[in-house]
């Protein structure tokens, strides 16, 4: 017991600082874990709570495929929903012009109602032997599809 009293009297300040340091580290670790990992197990957090009120039906996806396949230029259509983003991939037959492909893809917007258009983003990928182009319609944007720059690469000849 005398040894402990001697260590305490000689190192009182260091021992108090060590206890304070340990308490601060425990608090820091607790706050860090809560901040970075949180308690929510959903990978999207609460961002998708609003889509519970306006879910997209399987019938809508079938209507999208049927509308696009009405065109003779379209060979294949796939749709996929991830969170608030509807991915639409359209494959065109050989010989389809880029402007025609864009116009056919743009017709899909008319199948969504106003609530769905204000909530969901649309991502388009149009493919052909001559081109591959991506476009997007943001729910908060202008309401039109914005197509990626499709400038052909000049050959070095």
Provide a compact summary of the structure.
The protein is an alpha+beta fold.
Describe this entry's structure for a reader:
It is a single chain. The protein is elongated. It has a 5-stranded mixed sheet. It has 2 domains: 2-37; 49-147, GMP Synthetase, Chain A, domain 3 (2-Layer Sandwich), CATH 3.30.300.190. It has helices at residues 2-10, 12-37, 58-69, 98-106, 114-119, and strands at residues 74-82, 85-92, 121-127, 132-137, 146-147. With 157 residues, it is an alpha+beta fold. It contains 5 helices and 5 strands.
Runs with pLDDT <50, length 5+?
none
Q: In total, how many domains does the architecture comprise?
A: 2
Side-by-side strand order of the widest sheet = 1-2-3-4-5
Task: Report the total helices.
Answer: 5
Overall pLDDT level: 87
> What percentage of residues falls in helices of 4 or more residues?
25-40%
Distance between the termini: 91 Å
C-alpha-based Rg, rounded: 29 Å
Characteristic key phrases:
5 helices, single chain, elongated, 157 residues, GMP Synthetase, Chain A, domain 3, alpha+beta, 39% helix, five-stranded mixed sheet
List the helices and strands and how they pair.
Blueprint: H1 2-10, H2 12-37, H3 58-69, E1 74-82, E2 85-92, H4 98-106, H5 114-119, E3 121-127, E4 132-137, E5 146-147
Parallel strand pairs: 2-3
Antiparallel strand pairs: 1-2, 3-4, 4-5
């Amino acid at each position: 017991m005398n040894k402990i009293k001697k260590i305490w009297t000689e190192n009182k300040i260091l021992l108090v600082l060590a206890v304070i340091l340990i308490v601060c580290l425990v608090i820091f670790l607790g706050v860090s874990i809560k901040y970075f990992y949180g308690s929510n197990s959903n990978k999207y957090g609460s961002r998708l709570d609003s889509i519970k009120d306006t879910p997209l039906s399987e019938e809508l996806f079938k209507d999208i495929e049927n509308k696009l396949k009405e065109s003779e230029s379209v060979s294949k259509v796939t749709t996929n929903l991830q969170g608030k983003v509807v991915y639409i991939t359209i494959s065109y037959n050989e010989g389809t012009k880029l402007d025609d492909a864009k116009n056919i893809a743009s017709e899909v917007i008319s199948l969504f109602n106003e609530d769905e258009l204000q909530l969901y983003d649309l991502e388009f990928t149009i493919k052909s032997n001559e081109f591959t182009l991506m476009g997007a319609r943001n729910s908060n944007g202008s309401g039109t599809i914005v197509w990626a720059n499709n400038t052909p690469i000049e050959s070095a000849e």
